[in-house]
Amino acid sequence: MLYKDLALSENHVAKLQDTGYFIAPFLDDHEIQALKDIFAAEVGSFQQGIFFTAAYNDVESKFRIREAILALLSEKMSKFLPGFYISAALFIAKSAHSNNGTLALHQDYSMVDHSKHLALNAWFPLIDVDGNNGCLCAVPRSHRVAGIRAASLNPTPYDDMLPSLESEYAVKYPMRAGEMMLFDQRVLHGSGENNTDTPRIALQITMLPVGLPMRYYYWNKNQPNRINAYEVGMDVHLKLPISVQVDDPTQYGLTLIESTDFAVKQVSREDLAELGIVPVS
Predict the structure, then answer these.
(1) What is the model's pLDDT at position 89?
(2) Which domain range does residue 81 map to?
(3) Rounded to an integer, what distance in angstroms lies between the CA atom of residue 63 and that of residue 38?
(4) Whether the Cβ atoms of residue 261 and residue 152 lie closer than 8 Å to each other
(5) Is a pLDDT exceeding 70 seen at residue 123?
(6) pLDDT the model gives residue 240
(7) Which of 96, 108, 146, 188 would be a feasible disulfide site paired with 139, CB 3.0-4.6 Å?
(8) How much is the pTM?
(9) CA–CA gap between residue 110 and residue 185 (Å, rounded)
(10) Assigned domain for 279 exists
């Protein structure tokens, strides 16, 4: 499924195709509170800085979190985005007055072959957010340059440009509690520190086309010219390590789908400009 197949409004499809994302109201007060309650019950307090439930060591808790989110939002998301299902769900929290909570610009891990299918992420702040407490920033049209992002952090086309992308190309997006930023999984995004007295808790879910199994990509630094794609079930996904080198992903029950050539050419400012990606500051 590609942009032309999305059962969204013409305006939303146009924004997704152009910038790679859009913001819209979504959660009501009851749903916001229910999500806060899920986080409080399963996580409660957390360390200073930034915390991802995806990196939680308690797999059973991660399973309960996912199932509670599915029970609360699966039907509503399916109505909003027909033809897609929730494949992953996690909380991302920043402590009050975080001093190591910055999330640098990055592309989320690829869960589909982007040349053939769309993977969409939805990000929901559970409190009002702005530049003072860790709102999202994103680089408009960055989905046009990004390729596969492996869970083992392979080189990307924008590595050399990241400092400039962060300082000159990224746009901050204040949002109200319960609003949704729906974005192409390839979009470069990040967030700054939380300088307030209130922890900033957000929900992120990944939507994949119905019937399409989740993929997990691994790149091995000892075989830098290859990248492997594995099929992974939703339950197994919760057990996988992230941002680390894995020599044999099959030990986690993944099935190898394909192994392809891998090469990266760093983009320049001129390359970005040709794709419509231009500085905003």
Answers:
(1) 94
(2) 3-274
(3) 12
(4) no
(5) yes
(6) 78
(7) 188
(8) 0.94
(9) 7
(10) no
**CA–CA dist 26, 77 (Å, integer):** 9
Give the separation between CA 222 and CA 245, rounded to whole angstroms.
Answer: 10
H-assigned helices in the chain: 10-18, 29-42, 59-80, 162-164, 234-237, 269-274
Q: What is the rounded distance in angstroms from the CA atom of residue 157 to the CA atom of residue 140?
A: 16
The pLDDT-based confidence of 229 (bands split at 50, 70, 90) is very high
For residue 144, give both structure tokens: 């046009």
Give, in order, the Cα–Cα distances in Å from 220 to each of 154, 225, 228, 248, 258: 8, 9, 9, 10, 14
Asked if residue 132 belongs to a domain, the reply is yes
Percent composition of the chain: helix, strand, coil (DSSP 3-state, to 5): 30, 25, 45
Tell me the two tokens of residue 149: 């992002």
Q: Hunting for tokens 């990196």 — which residue is that? A: 55
Domain count, the chain: 1
| Percent of the chain predicted with pLDDT > 70 | 98
What mean pLDDT is predicted for residues 15-32? Answer: 97
Mean pLDDT of the chain: 92
Cβ atoms of 276 and 141 within 8 Å: the answer is yes
* CATH number of the structural domain spanning residue 51: 2.60.120.620
pLDDT at 175: 98
The residues pairing with 211 across neighbouring beta strands, listed in sequence order, are: none
Tokens 């891998």 belong to 262
- Work out the burial of residue 47: count CB atoms within 10 Å of its CB; fewer than 13 is exposed, 13-18 middle, 19 or more buried: exposed
CA torsion, points 75, 80, 83, 87, in degrees to nearest 10?
-60
Residue 281 lies in a domain: no
Residue appearing with tokens 């967030």: 191
The pLDDT of residue 28: 98
